[in-house]
Design a protein that fits this description.
- It contains 11 helices and 13 strands.
- β7 and β8 form a beta hairpin.
- With 307 residues, the chain is α+β, with helices and mostly antiparallel strands.
- The strands form 4 sheets. Strands 5-6-9-7-8 form a 5-stranded antiparallel sheet.
- The N terminus is likely disordered.
- The chain has 2 domains: 171 residues, 2-Layer Sandwich (Uridine Diphospho-n-acetylenolpyruvylglucosamine Reductase, domain 3), CATH 3.30.465; 91 residues, Enolase-like, domain 1 (2-Layer Sandwich), CATH 3.30.390.
- It is globular and about 50 Å long.
C-alpha cells in the first residue's frame, strides 16, 4: 500500500492505513489484503465525544464504540431504531471495540475479496469471481463491477435518520455523498487519503416518530444481513432505508411515498420495483418485501400497555 498523508484534528501529519478498534483492518491484514504502515488513532484526541447540542442534535465522535453508542440513554430515547440497529449488529464482544468510523468505512465482506487466492475488481484486479460461483449474497439493485452489498448496518440506520457525516478535509456530508455509487476499486466510500472521518451528527428527534430495525440473516449473531431495514414513521418524514441489497445503503422513496399516502403495510410492495438479480440471489427480491412488511407490521401495531 502506498504511503498516505492526511491532517488530523491536532493539525499533525500522519501516514498509513488508519486503525481505531481494528476489527476490520486487522482481519484484512491477516488475510494479506492490506500492507504497509498502520496509524493507530487511539491516542488522537477529539474524536471520542458524544455531545448533545443546544438544538437537540447529537454529535458522535468517530472513535466512540458501537456498544457505547447503542446503549447511550440519549440515543435510545431520541433515535430508538438507530440504537436497536447498532445494538444488534455483530456480537457483544465486537461492539465493545468496534468504532463508529470503522463501521462506516469497513470494506466489503465478500469472501472472494477477502481471500488472497482470488483477484477481483475490489482487490486490484478485474471481474467478479462471485458471478461465476456462489453469489447468493449478491446485490439486487445497482450492481456494477462489484455485486457485493454494502456491509454497514450503521450506515443504513444513519440514512434512515438523515444523519450527517463529519469529515476533516471534506466538511459535512450526507450518507449518499459519503458512499457515492460504492464501486471504487480501493474503498467503499468517497473520502480521499487526505480526508478523515471525525464523527456523525444526528439531527434533533422528530416529535411523535416511531422507528425500528429488522434484520433477516442466516444466524442471529456474527452474521451480515441478507436483508435489513430501518424505518422511521412520522408524517412528513417517512424514511425506509435498507441494507444487504445494493453496493450502498438504499432509501426506498416509493415505499415512503406510499406510507405518506396511508397505504400501511401494503407499501412494502413498492420496494421490489426495479430489482434484478442473478439466479443465486433471486430469493432476496421476496425477502426484501417480507422484511419491510414485517417491520411495518411491528411499528404500525399499537403496543399494549403493561398490566
Amino acid at each position: 500500500m502506498s504511503e498516505v498523508r492526511y491532517p488530523t484534528t491536532q493539525s499533525q501529519a500522519v501516514w498509513g492505513q488508519r486503525r481505531a478498534g481494528g476489527t476490520d483492518v486487522m482481519d484484512r491484514l491477516r488475510h494479506g489484503r492490506i500492507a504497509g504502515a498502520l496509524v493507530d488513532l487511539r491516542d488522537v484526541a477529539g474524536m471520542e465525544g458524544l455531545v448533545v447540542l443546544p438544538d437537540g442534535s447529537v454529535e458522535v465522535g468517530t472513535k466512540v464504540t458501537l456498544a457505547r453508542f447503542a446503549t447511550d440513554a440519549k440515543v435510545r430515547a431520541g433515535w430508538p431504531g438507530l440504537a436497536d440497529a447498532v445494538g444488534g449488529l455483530a456480537t457483544p464482544q465486537i461492539r465493545q471495540v468496534a468504532t463508529i468510523g470503522g463501521s462506516l468505512l469497513q470494506r466489503t465482506r465478500c469472501a472472494w475479496f477477502r481471500s488472497p487466492d482470488f483477484s477481483c475488481h475490489k482487490s486490484g484486479g478485474s471481474g467478479c469471481p462471485a458471478l461465476a460461483a456462489d453469489h447468493h449474497w449478491n446485490s439486487i439493485f445497482g450492481a456494477g463491477p462489484c455485486v457485493a452489498p454494502h456491509p454497514s448496518t450503521l450506515a443504513v440506520a444513519l440514512l434512515a435518520f438523515d444523519a450527517l457525516i463529519l469529515a476533516d478535509g471534506r466538511g459535512t456530508l450526507t450518507v449518499p455523498e459519503l458512499y457515492g455509487d460504492g464501486q471504487a476499486a480501493d474503498r467503499e466510500h468517497t473520502l480521499t487519503d487526505e480526508q478523515l472521518l471525525v464523527g456523525v451528527r444526528l439531527p434533533p428527534p422528530l416529535p411523535g416518530a416511531v422507528s425500528g430495525w429488522l434484520r433477516t440473516a442466516a444466524r442471529a449473531r456474527a452474521e451480515w444481513p441478507l436483508v435489513e431495514a430501518v424505518i422511521r414513521l412520522v408524517p412528513g418524514g417517512m424514511r425506509v432505508a435498507v441494507g444487504g441489497v445494493a453496493p450502498v445503503p438504499m432509501r426506498f422513496l416509493a415505499v415512503e411515498a406510499a406510507l405518506e399516502a396511508g397505504e400501511g403495510v401494503g407499501a412494502a410492495a413498492q420496494a421490489v420495483a426495479g430489482a434484478a438479480s442473478n439466479p443465486g440471489s433471486s430469493y432476496k427480491v421476496m425477502l426484501l418485501q417480507r422484511t419491510i412488511e414485517t417491520l411495518l407490521e411491528r411499528l404500525l401495531t399499537p403496543q399494549k400497555a403493561a398490566p
